[in-house]
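job 3f2a | input accepted
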Amino acid sequence: MRSSSAGTESLLLDRARGCLLGAALGDALGATVEFMSRSEIKARYGVHKKIIGGGWLYLKPGYVTDDTQMSLCVARSLVRSSGFNAVDMADAFVEWMRTGPVDIGSTVAQGLRRYIAKGRVAAKESQWHGGNGALMRVAPVAIAALNCPDSLEEWAVGQAHITHNHPLSDTVCIAVSRMIQSALKGRPLLELLEIAHELVRIHPEFTFRPYNGKAGGFVGETFATAFSSFYNTDNFEDCLVECVNQGGDADTTGTVAGMIAGAWYGARGLPKKWLNKLEKNTKAELFELAKGLLEIG
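job 3f2a | predicted structure (297 res):
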């Protein structure tokens, strides 16, 4: 007979894998309709619900964008360093940038060029850093800090500041990390909702109810789109479909919705038809990294 401890560990690993793989699925699904409006998506696809690639990046089906690629850099660095090491993570980002990725955000590129030139692992606070480029890669931090709760805020903000230094970015990176951790622990939905409400109370820019339909790259819009889609549905697939069909920065809203919903529903709750489409090397590495992240601390 399996012990309850073994069962709990198995469920935790399933949820951690769901978080990482779910984010990648959101990325791969959303990339097809990135920068399209809701009406354009409806006219072309009806409802976009298949991982078919294409989009403005002309991706192959199941391939991912910088959202997942940077998350992989974060996860590898955390596992390699047994925790957050700003220099190691910045080096990982630079190595990735030098491979000529299919896409890279302007704030990310600017931050990495600063690091190369000056060796500073933290950007200065800037009003222009309110985009979602740090939030999109926070999932591995949430998993890695599960056994290091006192380090969560430092790690979430530290990885963000390598490229993004803005109060709203910092706050939502911490909040979403806490949501992921609550989901990993199997806490009630009310706990995630309370985190969201507290975020909105302090910063109304994150208001998700009522949802205003804006799904751009501003971190407030990204969170509102992702969390409202999660909260208003009861399974992973419907969450992601509702999210990416809002259009806008759909690969990143899909990524954020996918990390929250994936942690909540677990890998067992991810659609097999989507997992079968996900690029095999990416899928295999995320599957293994989840275990390594949980062993930190």
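job 3f2a | The chain has a mean pLDDT of 96.
job 3f2a | closed
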